[in-house]
Give the backbone structure.
Amino acid sequence: MKLGPLGTLFIESKRHFLDFAEFNDREQASYGILAKRISAALKQLTNAERIYQVSMVEGVPHFHVWLVPRTKEISEHGIAFLVRDDSCEEKDAVELVEKLHEAMK
């Protein structure tokens, strides 16, 4: 199973809505705080140079954002990076999730 680059995560809304235009005031306020905290933790834990945030809402008509860390060692940037066929080991993903969970406390 392809898991994507190490540290790839999803932010998904609890309430059903499609995109940023449908955020209520509380969701709007909390999204930035959450994205900042997760991005900072992912940068630290994965040594990422960038954290890509992608939301296409095509396959599933429900708000979700992919967070995809890109490290300095990866020469592709932007779309070229996102279309790479990267994967990590499941054990590494589980270990990172445990560290991320601790960092988010």
Q: What stands out?
A: Helices lie at 25-46, 78-82, 90-103.
